[in-house]
Amino acid sequence: MPVGTQGTVKSVPQDALESLGAQIILGNTYHLYLRPGHEIIRRLGGLHQFISWPHAMLTDSGGFQVFSLSELRKVTDDGVRFRSHLDGSSHFFTPEHSIDVQIALGADIAMAFDECTEYPAERSRAEESLRLTLAWARRSLDHHRAHRDEVPWRNEFPGRAQSLFGIVQGGMYTDLRRECAERLVEMDFDGYAIGGLSVGEPRELTLEMIAEVLPLLPKDKPRYVMGVGYPDEIEQYARMGVDMMDCVLPTRAARHALLFTSEGRINIKNKQYAEDQNAPDPNCNCPVCRRYSRAYLRHLMQAGEGLSATLNSIHNLAYYLGIMQRVRASLEAAPASVAEPR
Amino acid sequence: MPVGTQGTVKSVPQDALESLGAQIILGNTYHLYLRPGHEIIRRLGGLHQFISWPHAMLTDSGGFQVFSLSELRKVTDDGVRFRSHLDGSSHFFTPEHSIDVQIALGADIAMAFDECTEYPAERSRAEESLRLTLAWARRSLDHHRAHRDEVPWRNEFPGRAQSLFGIVQGGMYTDLRRECAERLVEMDFDGYAIGGLSVGEPRELTLEMIAEVLPLLPKDKPRYVMGVGYPDEIEQYARMGVDMMDCVLPTRAARHALLFTSEGRINIKNKQYAEDQNAPDPNCNCPVCRRYSRAYLRHLMQAGEGLSATLNSIHNLAYYLGIMQRVRASLEAAPASVAEPR
Which is catalytic among the residues B108, B114, B246, B281? Predict the structure, then answer.
């Protein structure tokens, strides 16, 4: 899922996302709550209509950004008080408030409000974070069940409901992860995410946590690993049975000159590409690789041109979406042999 | 003609320009000479191939940017010594050198190296500038005639030749303008431009200079007014018989939140548009107005998102190109009554 932080996948027009075959994009609740504000988006018909994206969308709970971006945050059992990174204003987020904001945004999938455990974390810290996350999951679910018919599009799509996913935390402690997963499954969410990964831990640990938790999550509901990852990671996790992933990496790396290609990563700013007439990825059929050379992309980056971010991002997203398309195709061709973790 | 300063119409992908019906774009010789360098572009097959624009292109002579952007410039009869605005390096441009660079870039149309007279300018200064511009026009033409078959695409398109246009200067003195035009026409360029306008003078003066010069330029060759203008100006000049104009205004204004619409100019950053669900221009059929609201464009601008420049620029270019399409249609419908200045 390409990440559309502030209601836009940075520098990529919506029609370009469509032509790449993107089926679902993310919006960040924290950012949209602060600017332009969820009430404005509600009055404008919800996030789909506001940004003109008539396809699937998912909003996160805001929890991750509260912990990573905001200042002076203070966590209590009730919720989190924090200061906006934009203007220093003070805000208080509870599970109920996060859900209210997400219902106003009206994505197809909302996320329970969780507390993301940092890495590394002592066991006692991870236990406390787990306790909060489970309590907040319960409150998120209850509030969502009571109010989810208040989405802005309830009259246009009376048969549809917003889904709510629970988020498995527990730091890098497998028993805590298992406990969290089992308790969330008892609550019966519409889908399940594994959060708190890719926060600085070695990749072996990420993999271990996913392998531990995945078998505990119902196969007939979407299983989502949040915030991953590099191209080889997303392929590996998808083949293990992960249905959904999101990451800013393809677009953020693109803005910093890093292109993912079938021949490995290249830094398009390097002098060696100054006269390279090849496509960014000679084996890629995306609109950028069909039309432009490495020399041109290198020039755009060197010259500080806005088109650089657009073209680099379109290629990287095409590369990521291409991986998932190939994985899907191979799963469809041989479902029994690859759908299970081995 | 949309302006593609550094080999890109800022923030607008080439396919978007094509879908707007842009037939020709500009490149700035000064910028491309400094970065990535004309020899690199020559080795990459020329500017068309480098930026993947298989349609018409025009390069300016570099003179205007040398005078407006560079530092410590020193003008002699032979040429201009200047320092790069990028790194302070010293360069010397003569008419012959400007032509060599433009042949290496290989646009369809190159421009004679001129000295743009500032505004206001004393008559003695305008006379001196006119003397230089005429001498340099002669040298530009002679050098171009001797070398224009050295364009990078000479083997692919053996039947085609790069055109060279002369540039009428003369400040705001009608007799100097007339003298310049007559002398240039005697030299027999492939087309003629009127330069040194829109440099700070009142619009009445711009109009007076164009009205004075235009009848002296051959009707069977393109007549080009450089660096104009606002929407009502370009319509007025086109109806007077001007065939070509270029201006950074639609794209530069777009990046600063200014949209040109059928209802007048709007600053899309204004709070009044925060919840405005209308298209940027309700009477416009461009891809941006068909898909996005003023509220969304306002949010993108407020949030500092790169997509803001892209969408605003696409709309403004559509608005400008739409004006010219309407003028062309009305000229074709009633050529005799409007093709002549009245």
Answer: B246
Question: ipTM above 0.90?
Answer: yes
Active site residue B188: no
In three-state form (DSSP H/G/I as H, E/B as E, the rest C), the secondary structure along B161-229 is: CCEEEEEECCCCCHHHHHHHHHHHHHHCCCEEEECCCCCCCCHHHHHHHHHHHHHHCCCCCCEEECCCC
Active site residues of A: 60, 246
Question: Chain A: nearest CA to B7, how far in angstroms?
Answer: 8
pLDDT one-digit tens code per residue, B79-94: 999 999 899 999 999 9
Residues B321 and B327: their CA atoms lie apart, in Å, by 10
Find the helix or strand (DSSP H, E) in which B298 lies. helix B294-302
User: pLDDT of B160-216, one tens digit each?
Assistant: 999 999 999 999 999 999 999 999 999 999 999 999 999 999 999 999 999 999 999
Spatial CB neighbours of A233, under 8 Å, sequence gap ≥ 6: A203, A206
Token pair listed for B304: 């500092």
The confidence score (pLDDT) of residue A336 equals 56
Instruction: Pick the closest to residue B111 from B37, B170, B38, B30 (CA basis).
Output: B30
Q: How many CA atoms within 13 Å lie on the side-chain side of A313?
A: 25
As given in the structure block, the two tokens for residue A52 are 């003109």
CB contact at 8 A, A178 and A215:
no
Give the integer Cα–Cα distance in Å for A134 and A140: 10
By the CB < 8 Å criterion, does B310 face chain A? yes
Determine the residue type at B295: A
CA distance B279 to A36: 18
For residue range B112-146, list pLDDT tens digits in order: 999 999 999 999 999 999 999 999 999 999 999 99
d(CA A151, CA A41): 11
Closest Cβ opposite residue A36 in set B15, B277, B299: B299
CB contact set of A98 (below 8 Å; sequence gap of 6+): A29, A61, A62, A63, A113, A140
Query: With contacts defined as CB-CB under 8 Å, which chain A residues touch B8?
Result: 300, 303, 305, 307
Pairing state of beta strands A264-267 and A258-261?
antiparallel
Cα(A172)–Cα(A117) distance, integer angstroms: 9
pLDDT above 90: percentage of residues in chain A? 92
Q: What is the pLDDT of residue B342?
A: 41
Contacts of B11 in chain A (CB under 8 A): 305-307, 310
Choose among A12, A52, A291: nearest Cβ to B52.
A291
**Angle value at C-alpha B235, between B234 and B240, nearest 5 degrees:** 95
Structural domains for chain A: 3-247 (3.20.20.105), 253-325 (no CATH)
Q: Considering only residues 246 to 265 of chain B, which have any Cβ-Cβ distance to chain A shorter than 8 Å?
A: none
Structure pTM?
0.96
Instruction: Identify all chain B residues contacting A87, using CB atoms and an 8 Å cutoff.
Output: none
Q: Which chain A residues are Cβ-neighbours of B14 within 8 angstroms? A: 291
Hey, is B92 helix, strand or coil? strand
CA distance B288 to B312: 8
Is the minimum CB–CB distance between A287 and chain B shorter than 8 Å?
yes
Tell me the average pLDDT of chain A: 95
Q: Say which amino acid occupies A111.
A: M
Closest CA to A138 of A113, A117, A115: A113
Chain segment A207-216, per-residue pLDDT in tens:
999 999 999 9
